[in-house]
Amino acid sequence: MVAYFVKLSFFVAFAVVCKILTRFLQRKRDSPHRPSLTCFLDAVCEIFMFLRIGPWATPPDINQAMKLAMKETGLTDWGTKSDLTFAQRYNTVRTVALKKSKAKFSPIGHYYVLQSLTRRMTGRLQLFEYLKKHPTIQQIKLKSPVFVIGFPRTGTTFLHEMLGLHEAVRMHYTWEQMDPVPMTDDESLAAQRKDGEERYKKNLPHFNMLFKHVISDRIQDIHRIAYDEPEECTTPCGMELPWSASEIAFNAFAIDEVLPLGAGDTFKHYRKFLQLLTWSGPDRRDQDFTWMLKCPFHLPYLDALHAEFPDATIVWTHRDPADCIASACSLYETMLCMGMEEPSIDKKELGRAVLHYTDRCLQMAQQTIARLGDKFKILHIRYQETVKAPKETCKKVYAKANMPVTERYETALDAYLKNSDEQRRKVKEKNNTKEVHIYRVEDYGLTAEQIREQFKEYIAKYC
Length: 463
What we know:
Blueprint: H1 2-30, H2 36-51, H3 62-73, H4 85-101, H5 107-133, E1 146-150, H6 156-163, E2 169-170, H7 174-178, H8 189-214, H9 218-222, H10 234-237, H11 250-253, H12 255-258, H13 266-280, E3 290-294, H14 302-308, E4 313-318, H15 321-339, H16 347-372, E5 378-382, H17 383-388, H18 390-400, H19 407-431, H20 448-454, H21 456-462
Parallel strand pairs: 1-3, 1-4, 2-3, 4-5
């Protein structure tokens, strides 16, 4: 009898292993860009997702993330007395996007999405708890910041990095956004410096594991994400708007449903975030500097941004929509692949969604600019200006922000441009192509003529 069960166990185990290997090969065939480790883990975890065991027992939504965050931290103060519309925004975007896109979570994507949302909600709880313990942080005065905005793929990252080389500006970095709240209550600058170094080391393995072994490195050819390099406002604003990395692409499908919910306290909370980084940063506390910020998703919320930062300089980058929409589709597809089964992503449905999303964002931005008039300090920059005359473009921005262009800055800018050209050359050689990021608008059911016809007034005015 014992021998029988031993043989049976062996055959069952052999069958399971064969099934896992078969599913691994199928997954790798269907998602060639997906890391092999992720395909293997997806194959292993399919059974757990089917049986709804462990992390797969509950949906990976904001409600579950909030519960996990409160359990992990022991905190309950979300920074608002009763208004939890931030959760409503997340739920709305998720529900609408899944219905319209028909995309399905992968096993590892299910786990990744829940972890991403939980990290965002944990950071929110910790931020407001720390601000209560250290009330002087919110007394810090911030100089009028500079915001680089524009549709995705219009050169915002390139321009932002160049502007950030100025010695009188500061930017926030990926590692800070992952874990922005100090672990120590010691307010001395020495203690804050040490705490920052500890948080940097603590989260580095997680970052490397996530981007080198779980998420496809294809994202790096589209939008470079480096641990100790500047990042955009998306993550901190994701405390209030559904901009967690796992949710950004969903916004394209649900823009009509989420816009009526407004921005809430997004920019009030963002100010607090910047005050905390100013206070805890060794190169920021008691320093005279300007925050250099950037995000391609601010366009439909410019009224809320202006209400909180009325004297900010807004730099809006512009590019032929036929180019930026195709590139944005590729970006959103890649981001969806982080959490969804790649074969379940309908490219044509995505193309229609991104086209409509772009149109709605443009409408909202233009309405705000028209309403505010001269009260809105804005500079329009064409993509070709940034690419062909980067130094002159940066000088325009600093003139608009009433900041001098120093010799030290020009030297740093020259070095950056030389290095940037070299890095792009290496990527092109690696991909054996003339372009770093390859995409075709036709892959998403659109045509350049269709896009240019829809946006002809915008093109005539800004492109």
